[in-house]
Amino acid sequence: MSHIARTRELRPSILDRLLDHDPQAVREPAPARHQYLSELRQSVRRDLENLLNSRFCMIEPPQECPEATHSLLNYGLPDLATVNISDAEKKQRFVQQLERILREYEPRFKSVRVTHLENRERTDRTLRFRIDAVLWADPAPQSVVFDSILEPVSRSVNVKESLHG
């Protein structure tokens, strides 16, 4: 599911192509390369946040439907009320699951690695993690780093692009 043909030119997602940022303009000028890359990074950040704030049903698909495992039925994270991240080993397992989900559902990533970040204060109960990825981009792949925070009370994930990857 997360395969982009290398011969095809990368272009904005269907959502980004449908959004009209300037409805008064009859034609929108083609974006400059730096503008295109900036918009690509912003749309990836937005889509990552949407992916990580989506929850999938924890029911196993039938054995006669093996492809259902890789379908939109499993898009997002498991219900965070059922996820235990109380110790280092469980946090590491959760981070590995995050990485697998990103590989499966973010086709713009050529490669991705997720690492757990330690909290600065012992009383901080948020789960912090960093997403290091390489985006398919033309003419050369682009590295991006996103620092993310999972808030345990609201069970929401905030994703911000890191300026100092």
Automatic annotation (TrEMBL):
InterPro entries, A to Z: IraD/Gp25-like, T6SS_TssE1-like, TssE1-like
Pfam families xrefs: GPW_gp25
SUPFAM superfamilies, per the entry: gpW/gp25-like
Domain IraD/Gp25-like: 39-139
Domain of life: Bacteria
Gene3D superfamilies noted in UniProt: 3.10.450.40
Name of this chain's protein: Type VI secretion system protein ImpF
